[in-house]
Design brief:
Radius of gyration: 14 Å
Distance between the termini: 28 Å
Structural class: alpha+beta
Number of strands: 5
Order of helices and strands: EEHHHEHEEHH
Number of helices: 6
Largest sheet: 3 strands, antiparallel
Length: 132
């Protein structure tokens, strides 16, 4: 999976256009869907993602596969935070007796943990590069 993301600022610098490959969009999509499906309530979702259900649902819809094409998607800075949080919040949920369990993570998410970690860092790096 390619983990480098390009962000182009628009307007006042609070909106960014992200060029996402199909696998990048799918990884974030799967992380959001997994966390949203746990149904632990709004407070837990807000704690993990810094967003409410409506925001998560909107992101999930916008990240849904578009015929396997790389595409540009507009995100507010807060939505980038939500995406980053989703990628980093999933792995701890696959701890078994205090150790990370790679196989169940990969089976459920369709990616390796390193992919999620690298993509989360890619979001940070892209935002750092996009900001003046």
């Amino acid at each position: 999976m390619r983990t480098q993301i390009r962000l182009t600022p628009e307007d006042d610098g609070e909106v960014f256009v992200a060029r996402l490959t199909p696998s990048q969009a799918l990884a974030v999509h799967e992380a959001l869907v997994f966390l949203r499906s746990r149904e632990l309530g709004d407070a837990v979702l807000a704690l993990q993602l810094g967003a409410d259900r409506a925001t998560v649902d909107d992101l999930v819809e916008r990240l849904t596969d578009d015929d396997g094409r790389t595409r540009d998607i507009r995100f507010r800075a807060q939505e980038l935070h939500t995406m980053h949080s989703a990628l980093t919040a999933v792995a701890p949920l696959f701890l078994e007796r205090g150790r990370f369990s790679e196989e169940p993570f990969h089976q459920r998410m369709g990616f390796y943990r390193e992919n999620f970690d690298a993509l989360a860092l890619g979001i940070v790096d892209a935002l750092t590069a996009a900001r003046p």
